[in-house]
From TrEMBL:
Keywords from the UniProt entry: Membrane, Transmembrane, Transmembrane helix
Keyword Plastid: no
Organism of provenance: Tissierella simiarum
Residues that span the membrane, as ranges: 6-31, 52-71, 107-131, 137-158, 165-187, 193-212, 241-261, 281-303, 315-348, 374-402, 414-438
Top-rank taxon, per record: Bacteria
Name this polypeptide is given: YhfT family protein
Any single Pfam family the record assigns to this protein: YhfT
Lineage per the UniProt record: Bacteria, Bacillati, Bacillota, Tissierellia, Tissierellales
């Protein structure tokens, strides 16, 4: 793994696991966006704690096992889903009384530390196998940055039609090509190299937001704000602003320490040291998640331990800046969380006036998901083929279609990482029985 195991990282992972479990247990914040809207039923007494836990487990366990852990192993940084979804489960497992509060916090902290050591142990085991395939796992995410600049064009196509989406796609390609040709120059003997993928993504995101602000179905004059009735929920979130700020600071600090990454794309770029590009990808995901996180928070009175994910953006840029970077990351993360909570009512009202922005969030998430599905699948195929040129492609393609017909399919974007990792284990088994000689 890319992170170091020392006193600081152990404390940070314990703090991250502890606070995420605490927030879930005290009904303040959960990471799974689908779990958040169920909390009003629990808070109103319609749903009991056992049902809440069972629902949390059903929603999150498969993602932790089938997506979080394989993606973390492949990228060598723990993806946030692995720890935060698990802590949703831990928090809801215990009652939200005085004892349950501290028990869940302690278990969450222990899980964070166990995850820190466990991921490193897994990587160490892989490296001592007869055929070390860990180097090839980097290919799993090799196509993400190239393909990720496509998602804004797809989002525009969903929102404003395929023609406008096609225009954004073509212009994105033009911007990238122009950056490749003219993005390298010298200023006062200093060579400046502008990243073409980063510029293409930046242009595409700006285009996506521009289209969304112009593509609005105006609501009737005098209509009642859709979110006005949820004022009590907003106030409930604001009452927990301090602990949410601490959570935002810890999440940001963990990101700066390379312990966690907010998504597969930013994980891959961060692992490769492309921090600006990773921050841009994280910003793009934040734009997509603002409407979802805000609306589910407003209707439930329950927020997210990572907020809209905006805390990750500056945190990535603070990497390798030493103690000042770590301190700055924590305080900026906390400040961002405070600003998000304070703006909750304003943003909710803005979504009423500019419904196109809410549609943008829905469309952007759908587009990102589809792009990542393909990028990780093809990346997984490339990695599996690098590990086993004779059978790698067959294995991943077969897994993909078997998953499609399964009664309980895994998330599509998990198939690439799972296929590559299992291919590595398979070739080691084949080698032990003499069917896969080392060339």
């Amino acid at each position: 793994m890319l992170f170091e195991i020392n006193i600081l990282t152990i404390i940070v992972m314990a703090a991250l696991g502890g606070i995420c479990a605490y927030l879930a247990n005290q009904n303040i914040a959960v990471f799974h966006d689908g779990l958040r809207p169920l909390y009003p039923q629990y808070l109103d007494g319609v749903m009991d704690r056992k049902t809440l836990f069972a629902t949390s487990f059903a929603l999150s366990f498969g993602l932790v096992i089938g997506f979080g852990i394989p993606t973390s192993i492949a990228g060598k940084i723990i993806i946030t889903h692995t720890i935060m979804l698990a802590c949703d489960i831990i928090g809801t497992l215990f009652s939200d009384d005085r004892n349950g509060k501290w028990i869940s916090t302690g278990v969450g902290a222990l899980f964070g530390v166990a995850l820190l050591f466990g991921m490193q142990v897994l990587m160490n085991i892989f490296t001592i196998l007869p055929i070390d395939f860990t180097g090839d796992l980097g290919l799993v995410g090799s196509l993400i940055i190239v393909s990720f600049s496509v998602f804004p064009a797809i989002a525009v196509a969903y929102q404003a039609g395929v023609v406008k989406g096609g225009i954004v796609l073509v212009l994105t390609m033009v911007v990238k090509q122009l950056t490749v040709l003219f993005g390298s120059f010298t200023i006062n003997s200093v060579n400046v190299q502008i990243n073409a993928d980063g510029m293409a993504l930046l242009f595409a995101i700006i285009s996506m937001v521009f289209v969304a602000t112009r593509y609005n179905k105006k609501s009737d004059v005098g209509a009642v704000d859709a979110f006005a009735v949820f004022g009590k929920n907003i106030e409930r979130i604001k009452k927990n602003m301090l602990v949410l700020a601490i959570s935002g600071g810890i999440v940001a600090l963990a990101t700066t320490l390379l312990l966690i990454a907010e998504g597969p794309a930013s994980l891959t770029l961060t692992a490769e040291g492309q921090y600006f590009e990773a921050a841009m990808v994280s910003l793009g995901r934040t734009l997509g998640f603002i409407p979802l996180v805000m609306t589910t928070a407003i209707i439930s009175g329950v927020y997210s331990p990572a907020g809209t994910k905006a805390v990750h953006v500056p945190a990535i840029l603070f990497i390798n800046m030493g103690i000042l970077g770590m301190v700055g990351s924590f305080f900026v993360g906390a400040l961002i969380m405070i600003i998000e909570v304070l703006l909750l009512g304003f943003i909710a009202a803005g979504m009423d006036k500019f419904p196109g922005m809410k549609d943008l969030g829905d469309n952007a998430r759908t587009a990102m998901s589809k792009v990542l599905d393909i990028a990780l699948l093809v990346g997984g195929m490339l990695a599996a083929n690098a590990i086993a040129p004779t059978i790698g492609y067959i294995w991943v393609i077969g897994l993909f279609f078997l998953n499609q017909v399964s009664k309980k399919p895994l998330a599509s974007m998990a198939i690439g990482p799972i296929g590559a990792i299992t291919m590595g284990l398979i070739v080691n088994i084949l080698h032990l029985i003499g069917l896969f000689p080392i060339v």
